Amino acid sequence: MLKINEITAGYGKKNVLENLSLTCFSGEIHGILGWNGAGKTTFFNTVFGFLPLKNGEIQLDNRQISKSDISFLETEPFFYPNLRGREYLELLAGQKKVDFERWQAIFDLPLEDLVNSYSTGMLKKLAIAGVFLQNRKVMLLDEPFNGLDLESAEKLSWLLENLKKQGNRVVLISSHILPTLTRLCDKISRLEVGKIVQTYLPEQFSGLEIELKNVVHQKFLDFG
Amino acid sequence: MKTAQLLHFQKIRIRLFFRNLQQAGWGILLVALVLCAGVIISFLSKIMEKPLPIWGILLAVPVFLWHFQRRDGRFLQQIGLAARPVFWLEYGLVSVPAAVVLIFGENWKGLILLGLCIFLTPFFPLPDKKSDDKTTNFSLDFLPGWAFEWKSGIRQTGYGFCFFWLLGLAGSWWVGTLPLFAFLFGTMLISFFENIENKEIMQSQFAKSGGFWQKTAKNVLFADLLFLPHALVFLIFNFQYWYFLLAIFGFISLMTAFSVAAKYANWYPGRRRASNSLLSGLFVFFTVSAIFTPVAIAWWVWKAWQAQKMLNKYF
Predict the structure, then answer these.
(1) Rounded percentage of chain A residues whose pLDDT exceeds 90
(2) Is B200 in contact with A71 (Cβ distance < 8 A)?
(3) pTM of the model
(4) pLDDT at residue B315, as a whole number
(5) d(CA A203, CA A32)
């Protein structure tokens, strides 16, 4: 179980997250939904440990979480230049053997080409392969579907569903795309101005959609 | 040509320049400034001694080098600035000190030549970025995975690195080749360690304690091994100068260790590149001037401490 308890974090003196709390159970895919600038990426960076906690704590199975528990897919992953896709995956795997054929088959990646020649979507797929290869207890996926074509997005959904079936991972996904989240997630939390304002269960997902539409409508009215 | 836009652009360039200086650290810059002043004064006294017109061309060499290294032609085009006036202004500004020296030396012919060089340089086309890319995808599977900086660096230079290595080997029978080769190799190393790997690769290297020192040791050993064939050829033909090798291996080892440390010393999450050429250039200067070698060692120790502190904080 991942327990995020009253965390406060930010950049310099500015707090982006304020007393944020969230609990996720093993085998759960938890969606984080928020407008641009709501603090989703800051939240992931904080859980990963790239931003120091000013307050609060993050626990995994009743102990303090460490980086070796987490794999984190960033919105715009980057790679060391002039390395082949295969070499990148080998570096991540360390001593473990990598089933290159599997990843080649899933994502159709040219693993013998240099990463410099990869398109944005291919880089994203390589990063996703890396995150799955790390096989950590907690997966933070920041906008994982951005830049993926329809087929690759379906394959990622399939990978995540398989992961859910294993029942021993906590997956946190951020996205703006509500239908993707409602299809995959067991819970969706709405992040607004650095706080979780509400967590929705599957039976509340349709209500969430209406609620968001109303918010957008209201914002348009306010805009004039 | 909009003058206001041109001036505004130069203001941004100057701001970026000072930001780069700030990144290098004021302490280091002060030392560099004192050392450079020494070199410049001795150079100036030579210019004053013999006011030959050729000095005008020699003083314009940095401008030529800068021009043929530039990659901002397309950017200037995008923001709607005519490139030539920008180049004339920039080259003119950086040549003011050289012009002052020539005026004081009453080297009028040299001054005219300098002016001519600055006027003509912008007419040469900038190098094409794409045709300049020598990156090759040759298999380097025989190198271990942890040597990824070497793989990337070697591929970046295309066949240049292999040619350079073989040339050094072929020339190692002569006593002067090896020190020169070591010097060029040491400076090349800097660029190999300027790119920064992503957090996943960093995690795989530094999650275990002592990861930084292991990485340093492995890379130093690797650099020394690359040099071993040259050293053997050198020994066969110049055994009487065996002690040269101590200095050369010391230089290569220190350069490698410094390059690794400098890469992580100023790292922060998300950083993709550490431009260490200014720092490393200064480090090369300290290392090769025997009197300053202890300063170079102390500097490396300091950078390594900084790097380890940074890595401990995040990994």
Answers:
(1) 57
(2) yes
(3) 0.78
(4) 83
(5) 17
